[in-house]
Design goal:
about 25% strand; GMP Synthetase, Chain A, domain 3; about 40% helix; alpha+beta
């Protein structure tokens, strides 16, 4: 299984202007994994994108990367 935290951090660092402020936290229970992405307030627009398109694309990539692990993966952006 791919390291989801590193994958999410890599995607975020590639699109923000302050990659050193990108943080990913993982919370896991028996049914789901929640990845919380934290970026600089100035970079929020870049991560979310117009009408949430970039955020939706990031969630789709992480969902594909987590295929086969048997748990639902949620991505929250703060």
């Amino acid at each position: 299984m791919a390291n989801l935290e590193q994958t999410l951090a890599g995607i975020a660092k590639a699109i923000v202007e302050s990659p050193d402020q990108v943080r990913v936290e993982r919370e896991e229970d028996e049914r789901a994994i929640t990845l919380t992405l934290t970026v600089s307030p100035d970079d929020m627009g870049m991560v979310i994108g117009r009408h949430g398109r970039i955020a939706k694309a990031i969630r789709a990539v992480i969902k594909a990367a987590s295929a086969g692990n048997g748990k639902k993966v949620n991505v929250e952006i703060r």
